[in-house]
Amino acid sequence: MPILNDFRPVAFQVLWFLTGLALGCFLISVAKTSPFPDDPEVQAKASRFLSTKDQVDAMFFGSSRIFRGISPEVFDDQMKSHGRSMTSFNFGFRGMLAHETNAMIETIVEQKPERLKWAFIELRHWGPDLADENRYTARSIFWHNPQETFSVLKSVRLKPFPFARGVNAKGITKVLKTFLWEMKKRAFVAKLSGTHLFHLGAKYANVGLIHSLFAASELSFSEGQALIDHQGFVSLDTAILLDPSYGDRREQFQENLEGYRRSVDSLRKTNKGDRTYGIPKNYNLDALRRQIQRLRFAGVTPVFVIPPLQKPAFFLLDLAKEEDGTILFNFNDPDAYPDLYEIENRFDADHLNQEGAEKFSGALADRFAEYLSSLSDPD
Amino acid sequence: MLFTDPVFLVFFFLIFFGYWGLRSNHPRKVLLLIGSYVFYGAWDYRFLGLIVASTLIDFVVGRILRFDGAARRRRVWLILSLVSNLGILGFFKYFNFFIDSGVGLLGFFGFEQNPRSLSIILPVGISFFTFQSMSYTIDVYRRRIKPISSPVDFALFVSFFPQLVAGPIVRASEFLPQLTETKVFKTVAVRRLLLLFLIGFIKKACIADNLAPAVDRVFSSPLDFDTGSIWVAVLFYATQIYCDFSGYTDMAIATAGFLGYELPVNFRAPYFARNITEFWQRWHISLSGWLRDYLYISLGGNRGSRFFVARNLMITMLLGGLWHGASWNFVIWGGLHGFALIAHKKWLQARGHSFARFSAGGVRTVLSTGLTFYWVCICWVLFRSESIDVAGDLFRGFVLFSANGSETIGFGNILWMIPIGVTHWLLTRWSPADAAERLPGWLFSFLYGLGVAAVLACIPTGTKPFIYFQF
Description:
- The complex is a heterodimer of chains A (379) and B (471).
- With 379 residues, chain A is mainly alpha-helical.
- In chain A, 55% of the residues lie in helices and 6% in strands.
- Among the domains of chain A are: 38-68 and 81-86 and 108-130 and 209-302 and 344-379, no CATH class; 137-206.
- Chain A has 17 helices and 5 strands.
- In chain A, strand 4, helix 16 and strand 5 (327-330) form a beta-alpha-beta unit.
- Chain A starts with a helix and ends with a helix.
- Chain B has 471 residues and is an all-alpha fold.
- Chain B has 2 domains: 6-183, no CATH class; 190-470, no CATH class.
- Chain B is built from 19 helices and no strands.
- The chains are: A mainly alpha (379), B mainly alpha (471).
- At the A-B interface, helix 2, helix 9 and helix 10 of A face helix 1, helix 8 and helix 19 of B.
């Protein structure tokens, strides 16, 4: 067949294909206009941040607990009342993973914001899991730079295998079960690693770069202006007005208040116990150190925050303890911060409402002002 | 596992190299069968039992029909096969629909009922493989084909992964003979298939998936939008569903082609049809052909009085609509197409024109093509809407031009239809594969690499399943 004749040698053709692909990807990447992922929420916050980047002193990074929980306006006012003038910006996003936070901070630092001195970061585990709905999204592709991808690949090998081994079997059954278990394990590791490697590939292939081709992104996003107006913060009380689907979460919470109270009581008791996780997994520690070093190198001091959760955070506390000089503000304590656990201050079991967010922001500012005073106080 | 999913790429490479690495035909078919079951099981392995059950029933009935010559007993075996297949389909796809409709009807007459509805998951592609499997038994019963003796061949016919979940619906007479030949890689038209796959990928990932957000937004709350936005959304949906489905078909044909198999053409530029009859000769050809051969003709087809022909046409289209999904919207969608087909038949009879004579002439062609497309879009409104009420809200904008919502998605977006339409028209007149074959090998590979880079940048992030998977 003449068509196939010029497909030999195949390697030669593959090389030409890869050359075209690489050249195409390079040319397209040159046309990239924003360093941030093409996600409507990120773009709205990034556009506001980039227009005022040289006025920002502090930024908040983390998941929806930070995004929906810290109002920069309240934080700034409270800092002012302590005699410290600051401008802050909330750069938290729904479901933001620790690796994503790293990549986001990296991009922020690359913009060289003149006054940025403090980065408030929600302390979270570093791990390889990606929820199905977050696979191949603009955000998950964005954070898969080589550094984060290789770090996450390391964590894949250390992740506990989520299937039972079945050691009770005997003889040939045991051999067979062990063989199947090993196969399953390898398939599991290969699949998870492959997913992350494909993300890395997708990043350099510019996947999703022209997503807004049909003006799709702004069509599906109604919170944009509110995020711009409030320094990256929109409480869930406001979000529900723009997107009624948030109502389900609140309803579920209201229907199970007793369950919520029980978990807060349990947290209260557990927090008083002397439980420890010991030395956290090395990759978590490596990732934390890398994050701290990178920020310090850029002249930014990281301040870690554990927001008011419903479950104990010993692992995170131990993690922070491992690294000398880590600044950590732990709000995961119903005794120390009872307001933040009051039902009238919660939107749902995991998130604060507008009032709760204002209280959390005020409390964070108080802790931070206290910390700054301790720096200037020689005692 | 979607064709646009990176995991599919890994899966296909494994199958491709494993398949061509084997020398004889039988192990290759076994590999394809295992691969097909893995492909289907990746969605939900529990439903593999359904494919196996459907395969076993029709294989066994086929074998029995071979040896049983008695007409009455043959009919009984055929009915057994049909009842089993349609029973599986009916339970998984239509059980709740019929219960809810029955309760609604009883409620209408004042008998309030509160039956339990079951939470049944719809197995992906069930309508496709059930129809395919059934067609074999009917063809054997009608003595159009000889029953097959190899269970592996038959199982592969039912579950061949490139077309398993969204067609094209392949006839046994088209596919089974292909299983007897040992494929030779030299006969695979690599360039043609690479281009076909890329074109399918562009249709699905770059066009359909990028249009989806605008369509979803307007169809979810049409009362919020103005007439212009509704027009844009409906035209976008017409483009989305065509690109989504024909894109899948292109990729399916290309994937099968890389393994040496030929699947039938499923689309022939349907939006350039000059009348509704022609539209159905160009849209989802494998389904319309199936409905014609196994339902319309079984009902009597064109035989009998005009009333009976119209009745047969309407029943076929109503059931064709129901095939798409368990909802009255689909039934009405089928009914509207049935009505248009009957009207077109009547019109041709009344005018005494032959189809060919009518279709001649430039202005007439443009007008009739536009009118046909407009009617098809009206039908798409029902097809896509979540309820008949929502469809009614959309008709206010699309048919009556009187939608007065305050939101807009920008009427200017309608301009996207021009490059899409022109490219589509050009592709009906010019074959990129023919041009590609004339290029030197290195240049083709280099340009293909550039093309893939451009396509990757245009695809939206996130995974979006094919629309026809739900059917």
